[in-house]
Write a structure and sequence with these properties.
Layout (H helix, E strand, L loop, with lengths): L1 E6 L5 H14 L5 E6 L4 H7 L3 H9 L8 H6 L2 E7 L7 H7 L3 H5 L7 E8 L6 H14 L3 E2 L23 E3 L10 H22 L1
Parallel strand pairs: 1-2, 1-3, 3-4, 4-5, 4-6
The chain binds flavin mononucleotide.
Length: 204
């Protein structure tokens, strides 16, 4: 049984969250982790190739293969992570989802559990809108949304950090200088574990 952790990350915050989500997936017996990233746009590579933070984040992701339609097809469950862009998912992630018509027509994604996670620059920069709007294409594909229950440690708080019932999240800061806090990573691990457990129950 395969659980795909799919992410896009320009500066590494969502990548760190994805690796924590992956740890959670791997903690569930009988589930195989598949870690993939959404491909970068050539124009971003051209524009940001010399940017130190961008380059470092890309180097850290070099071990992660680009996600293919076969990866989506073969996954039994999925966790999808994207930073926000004006309150929505990134175009890099959307491009991949917009290429899934062949999967949609044969119902290949129907019944697969899926969870979403994100990163924003600022506290009210759109975590919830990004997570909720990311669910729309996944519902069209017939997937079963899995969130984060409030019984998960660290969820009930009023601090400047992530953790929503719609999915794990973190704050990058307006100059991307913040790092995911341990509480954010722990919620990400819990979400990965939960999606993997639901996947095993539904499709095992
Ligand atoms: C075009 C663009 C739009 C963005 N829009 C928002 C936004 O609406 N709200 C916000 O808090 N951050 C916004 N950001 C900041 C990113 O979400 C932030 O850099 C990201 O969460 C960092 O994650 P990463 O390190 O995984 O790339 C935007 C960044 C870019 C480049």
């Amino acid at each position: 049984m395969k659980v795909l952790v799919l992410f896009y990350s320009m500066y590494g915050h969502v990548e760190k969250m994805a690796r924590a989500v992956a740890e959670g997936v791997q903690s569930v017996e009988g589930v195989e982790l598949v870690l993939r990233r959404a491909e970068e746009f050539q124009e971003i590579l051209d524009e940001k190739g010399e940017d130190k933070h961008f380059r470092e984040a890309r180097e850290r992701q070099e071990d992660v293969p680009v996600c293919t339609l076969d990866d989506l097809d073969q996954a039994d469950g999925i966790l999808l992570g994207t930073p926000t862009r004006y309150g929505n998912m990134t175009a890099q992630m959307k491009r991949l989802l917009d290429a899934t018509a062949s999967l949609w027509t044969r119902g290949a994604m129907e019944g697969k559990p899926v969870g979403v996670f994100t990163s924003t620059a600022t506290t009210h920069g759109g975590q919830e809108t990004t997570l909720l709007s990311s669910m729309i294409p996944l519902l069209h594909l017939g997937m079963i949304i899995v969130g984060v229950p409030y019984s998960t440690p660290g969820m009930l708080h009023t601090e400047g950090r992530g953790g929503t019932p719609y999915g794990a999240s973190t704050l990058a800061g307006s100059d991307n200088s913040l790092q995911p806090r341990e509480e954010d990573l722990e919620i990400a691990r819990a979400q990965g574990r939960r999606v993997a457990e639901v996947t095993r129950r539904l499709r095992g």
